[in-house]
Amino acid sequence: MIRLDVHTHCISSGHGSTCTIADMAKAAQKKGLSLLGISDHGPSTLCAGTNSYFKNLQMAPKNRYGIEMLYGVELNILDYSGKVDLCRHVLKGMDYAIISMHTKNIKPGNTLENTNAYINAMDQPKVRIVGHPDDPKFPVDYKALAEAAKVKGVMLEINNASIMPGSYRKDAIPNIIQMMYWAAYYEVPVLLSSDSHGPKDVGNVKGSLALLNAYQSILDFPDKLIMNYDIDAFKKALRLDS
Asked: What is the pTM of this model?
């Protein structure tokens, strides 16, 4: 049973969404989750939260409607050196950070450049998750990515929005399968995420679960590496005390 979803967005991510954090927590409660993470886009995304918004989040309630809350950020990687779009002193106060690449913030490079961008960004404060590394527009070396994630204590994401019909990240499934292979090889934890931009899809990882069920035995992928089943294991991987 999926107990948590921490890649979600509310009105402060822009994208035309009007939902509040409270709306997201209510949806999580109705869907039987125990833990919800809000990870709005970093300031470089049009109409997204500012440094002040993310700083204020650090004082937000840790329980809403019976749901344990975490407050993070989906950082935009801005260049191949791993530069991101939130001040380090603010970032250090967040519960976690997801690093992602979006075409509006960085021009897709070659495989080496994109891989280095992810690996370099792993050294930013609070980075615990690599967001949608399946995007075909940003080809990466999954062996190198998984090896670095293992060394740096970072989770790799299986993003449900990449699999859904109509996704702008087309043909992501072969990349996800490659990533799973190397994650299993290096024993890197993976996180199933909805990437929900509203209450409707909070906790929706049906596509990711179907893909796991289809390939888990083929890839010899153990349940212990899936962080959505055990909140204690997830928190340990998140390193909340560091």
From this structure: 0.96
- DSSP readout, 97-166? EEEE--TTTS----HHHHHHHHHHHTTSTTEEEE--TT-TTS---HHHHHHHHHHHT-EEEEEGGGTSTT
3 state SS of 29? helix
Return the axis-axis angle of helices 173-186 and 142-152, rounded to nearest 10°.
40
Angstrom distance (rounded) from CA 160 to CA 213: 14
**Closest CA relative to residue 149, chosen from 167, 123, 176, 126:** 123
Contact call for residues 167 and 161 (beta carbons, < 8 A) = yes
Q: What is the pLDDT of residues 87-126, one digit of tens each?
A: 999 999 999 999 999 999 999 999 999 999 999 999 999 9
The DSSP-derived string for 149-199 is HHHHT-EEEEEGGGTSTT-SSTT-HHHHHHHHHHHHHHT--EEEE--BSSG
Q: Are 51 and 10 contacting, i.e. CB atoms less than 8 angstroms apart?
A: no
Tokens representing 19 are 């939902």
CB 137 within 8 A of CB 172: no
Gap between the Cα atoms of 13 and 28, Å rounded: 18
Centre a 10 Å sphere on the Cβ of residue 77 and count the other Cβ atoms it contains. Answer: 27
